[in-house]
Specification:
This protein has 263 residues and is mostly helical. Helix content is 72%, strand content 0%. It comes from Pseudonocardia sediminis.
Length: 263
């Protein structure tokens, strides 16, 4: 007897990936809002309080609670992912945030998702999207790096970064790879922030270079495509050839009496 035909089962990978995408869709907006609140709390703690003060302790507790939420989110996404090793390798920044609270401010990069609506008003091409995200990312990373290095350096002996203005100037010269050398970190924490910022500066230059190169390649490709004959051009040529052939056939079919004398 013939075996009944059954529909193939859906691959488990698709189900697991759907679970991961559903988790991320549900958590994206709350975590973006939480990241914004985290940035505000961190800025207030660095700029308006000092370690040991009651306000500093309260704000530190809020930051630790926020970090705990980020840990829960990471663990939840890890559980939903079928290929967990691949997930870990694909999200190294999130892993650093979970394992090293010092790097927790990198989670604020999720704020880029919050400005995606603003980037829609930019020109709907590759340069417009890259430009919008680049401005937001550089501004966010620069501000957070300034907060981080200022917190690490302001009370250090022989520090040249003693005000938030000094920190902003140092960030500007570092991320642009100018490096005047008039301001530099002397603490381990400050140097870790500097290393991350230097890598960010290289990434920014690479992104800008790649965007410009892509734009030129697109322009050259458009010009080459415009110079090539289109199907409509070939159709017009074939039509003209048919017309000429018909004219020749008409001339060859004329009677001798219709031709001019002189043979």
């Amino acid at each position: 007897m013939d075996q009944p035909v059954t529909a193939p089962a859906a691959p488990a990978d698709l189900d697991d990936e759907a679970r991961l995408e559903a988790w991320e869709r549900r958590s994206d907006i709350p975590l973006t809002v939480l990241s914004a609140a985290f940035l505000v709390v961190y800025a207030v703690q660095v700029l308006a309080t000092r370690p040991g003060q009651p306000a500093w302790t309260a704000l530190e507790a809020v930051l630790w609670l926020t970090w705990a939420v980020f840990v829960v989110d990471y663990v939840g996404r890890l559980v939903c992912a079928r290929h967990r090793q691949r997930f870990v390798l694909a999200n190294p920044v999130d892993l650093l945030i979970v394992l090293a609270p010092f790097f927790r401010f990198l989670r604020l990069l999720r704020l880029i998702a919050a400005v995606s609506v603003l980037t829609r008003v930019l020109r709907d091409d590759f340069r417009g999207r890259v430009g919008g995200y680049l401005i937001v990312t550089v501004s966010l990373v620069s501000f957070v790096a300034a907060l981080g290095v200022f917190e690490a350096e302001r009370d250090a002996p022989e520090s040249s970064i003693t005000t938030f203005g000094d920190a902003l100037w140092w960030v500007l010269t570092t991320i642009t790879t100018v490096g005047y050398g008039d301001r530099y970190p002397v603490t381990t924490e400050g140097r870790l922030v500097a290393a991350a910022l230097m890598l960010a500066g290289i990434a920014v230059l690479g992104t800008v270079t790649a965007a410009i190169a892509t734009w030129f390649l697109e322009r050259v490709g458009d010009e080459q495509r415009a110079a090539q004959p289109t199907p409509a051009d070939w159709t017009a040529v074939l039509t003209e050839l048919r017309t000429l052939r018909n004219r020749v056939e008409e001339l060859e079919a004329t009677t001798p009496s219709e031709r001019s004398p002189g043979r």
